[in-house]
């Protein structure tokens, strides 16, 4: 699996072929799984409703397999993502549940005298906010069901278990780092090694909130950046348990309207990316993750916004290795005050955001954290939820920049509280004018209007990122009059956007909407979404480039060469 690694635990990957059965009528509350007959096989990871036999179906899927564990030893099942909702049973007993489709989670497996254990994962993909408050039917991307990402089983040590290790850079010039270790006994010493050094016994420099904190220096390093994505490993060993994490030495800051990476201004040029493919849904094979990043690299990008949920930890590992800067956000899309005043929604939102922070803490690539894409942030009733999320991010991870993608522009109430202002805007696509020769003209004027509005509000010291902007184009649809939905219109649209972004010093970056076409609403919801896809990808769902691909690439690359 992806980092972290557990060198002293017996770890078994549970990826592979599992038994499977599916029901469209099974009630989510029903936990009588003993009577099930498994009549099919499915791979893990997979989205069952992206597989031909269950395409587009909603209901409950059951995945079953066995695994081995030394008798008398307790263990832990680690799931990197199960959506939309999951219940996990071991030897017929429920041991955990999850209602956050893209967030890694763990369940404890109690010891047993049996060496062969059975796991059943019950997976629901019906919309029901009473069960799953985070995902609504109105989101503009398809909600799949399945065990989307890697699964493993770890036999746990009897004592001195290490729960979590977090590394952060204190000084990118000297290589000073701070290491946070969560164990049962934060006062005890442990051995720490960086890269290939011999492990050194260390006593904690501090204890903070039940964590042991160590200050160390990396002796030999080059600061991590897109040009030099140098990574290091750090192993913490308590004698009984060991955890190895990977990190880079880098610092990020927001100053005078610019994003600084290791003290140098960096303009973020890239795309929003859904983790999606028509054949796999969100359960992308490694080859596709690499292919996506190769295409992004080829187009001169240094930036990816993981819209609108956490991307696969393997993808973040690749971003660390290939030198991409990432805006990571927790699942959210267009929520309104009825959500922000619902305590169940707020609690689920805070929890998934806290879990996201913990799971991606060591990724050098992640520089921006966000939540609640396009929430109703011009309303006073949203204040409590937004402020709690901002506080949570600051408290849990003060060394990254905090933002959220807003489509309320200058009506947004909370821009003062974040580090970076992010606007999603679609001038010239969802156009103001019905004059069919005018829409492209709206692009720069809307950007300039926003910039001067931010200045008027005293916010020009905050970096401004266009976190979405784009136009739909149906792959292969050419049109001499350059109408909406043609590849030509998208190309001309993105030419204007990208040129403005690279030429305008007041713009700190752009995440074009979007990298690839992705499946979205069915039924009448798809009336504005031909083919039931969001077609604003610069490559289609099979990653075939549209005309705009080369245009964006030319402009981004020429900026890089400046
Ligand atoms: C919004 C939203 C995206 C997508 C986009 C569009 O900005 O954040 O997910 O729906 O609009 O294509 O209209």
List its traits.
nine-stranded parallel sheet, 562 residues, 19% helix, binds alpha-D-galactopyranuronic acid, alpha+beta, single chain, six-stranded antiparallel sheet
Structure write-up:
This protein has 562 residues and is an alpha+beta fold. It contains eight helices and 34 strands. Strands 28-27-26-25-24-32-31-30-29 form a nine-stranded parallel β-sheet. Strands 3-2-4-10-7-8 form a six-stranded antiparallel β-sheet, with no helix packed on it. Strands 1-12-5-9 form a four-stranded antiparallel β-sheet, with no helix packed on it. Helix 1 runs parallel beside helix 2, helix 4 (343-359) packs parallel to helix 5 (383-396) and helix 7 runs parallel beside helix 8 (547-561). The longest helix has 17 residues, at 343-359. The model has no long low-confidence stretch (mean pLDDT 97). It binds alpha-D-galactopyranuronic acid. The site of alpha-D-galactopyranuronic acid has 9 residues, from loops. Residues 140, 373-374, 407, 424, 468, 513, 534, 536 line the site of alpha-D-galactopyranuronic acid.
Helix content: 10-25%
Name the quaternary structure: single chain
Coarse structural class: alpha+beta
What is the total tally of β strands? 34
Number of helices: 8
Principal-axis shape equals globular
Unique bound compounds:
alpha-D-galactopyranuronic acid
Which whole number gives the mean pLDDT? 97
Strand percentage lies at 25-35%
Cα-based radius of gyration, to the nearest Å: 24 Å
Distance between the termini: 39 Å
Q: Give me the side-by-side strand order of the main sheet.
A: 28-27-26-25-24-32-31-30-29
Poorly predicted runs: none
Characterize the main sheet.
9 strands, parallel
């Amino acid at each position: 699996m992806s980092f972290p690694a557990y060198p002293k635990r017996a770890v078994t990957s549970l990826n592979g072929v599992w038994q499977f059965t599916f029901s469209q009528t099974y009630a989510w509350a029903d936990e009588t799984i003993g009577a099930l007959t498994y009549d099919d096989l499915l791979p893990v990871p997979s989205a069952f409703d992206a597989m031909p036999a269950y395409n587009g179906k909603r209901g409950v899927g059951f995945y079953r397999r066995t695994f081995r564990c030394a008798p008398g030893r307790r263990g832990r099942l680690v799931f990197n993502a199960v959506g939309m909702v999951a219940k996990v049973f071991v030897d017929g007993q429920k041991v955990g549940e999850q209602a956050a489709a893209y967030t890694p989670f763990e369940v404890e497996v109690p010891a047993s005298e049996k060496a062969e254990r059975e796991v059943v994962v019950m997976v629901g993909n019906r919309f029901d906010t009473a069960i799953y408050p985070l995902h609504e039917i109105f989101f503009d991307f398809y909600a799949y069901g399945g065990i989307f990402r890697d699964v493993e089983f770890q036999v746990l040590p009897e004592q001195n278990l290490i729960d979590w290790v977090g590394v952060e850079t204190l000084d990118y010039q000297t290589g000073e780092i701070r290491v946070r270790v969560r164990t049962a006994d934060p006062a005890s010493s442990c051995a720490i090694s960086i890269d290939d050094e011999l492990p050194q016994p260390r006593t904690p420099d501090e204890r903070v909130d039940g964590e042991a904190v160590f200050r160390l220096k990396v002796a030999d390093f080059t600061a991590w950046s897109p040009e030099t994505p140098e990574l290091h490993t750090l192993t913490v060993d308590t004698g009984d348990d060991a955890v190895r994490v990977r990190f880079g030495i880098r610092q990020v800051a927001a100053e005078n309207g610019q994003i600084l990476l290791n003290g140098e201004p960096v303009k973020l040029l890239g795309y929003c990316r859904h983790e999606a493919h028509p054949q796999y849904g969100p359960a992308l094979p490694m080859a596709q993750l690499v292919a996506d990043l190769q295409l992004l690299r080829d187009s001169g990008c240094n930036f990816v916004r993981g819209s609108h949920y956490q991307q696969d930890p393997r993808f973040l590992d690749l971003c660390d290795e290939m030198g991409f800067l990432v805006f990571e956000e927790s699942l959210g899309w267009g929520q309104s005050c009825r959500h922000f005043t619902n305590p169940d929604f707020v609690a689920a939102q805070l929890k998934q955001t806290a879990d996201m922070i913990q799971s991606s803490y060591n990724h050098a690539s992640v520089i921006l954290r966000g939540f609640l894409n396009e929430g109703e942030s011009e309303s006073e009733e949203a204040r409590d939820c937004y402020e709690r999320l901002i506080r949570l991010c600051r408290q849990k991870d003060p060394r990254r920049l905090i933002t959220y993608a807003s489509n309320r522009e200058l009506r947004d109430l909370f821009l003062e509280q974040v580090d970076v202002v992010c606007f999603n805007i679609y001038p010239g696509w969802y156009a103001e004018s019905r004059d069919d020769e005018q829409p492209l003209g709206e692009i720069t004027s809307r950007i300039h209007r926003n910039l001067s509005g931010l200045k008027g509000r005293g916010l020009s010291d905050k970096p401004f990122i266009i976190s979405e902007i784009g136009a739909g184009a149906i792959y292969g649809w050419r049109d001499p009059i350059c109408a909406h939905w043609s590849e030509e219109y998208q190309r001309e649209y993105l030419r204007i956007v990208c040129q403005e972004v690279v030429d305008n010093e007041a713009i700190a970056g752009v995440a074009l909407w979007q990298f690839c076409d992705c499946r979205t609403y069915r039924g009448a919801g798809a009336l504005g979404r031909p083919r039931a896809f969001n077609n604003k990808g610069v490559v289609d769902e099979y990653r075939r480039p549209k005309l705009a691909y080369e245009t964006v690439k030319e402009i981004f690359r020429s900026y890089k060469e400046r």
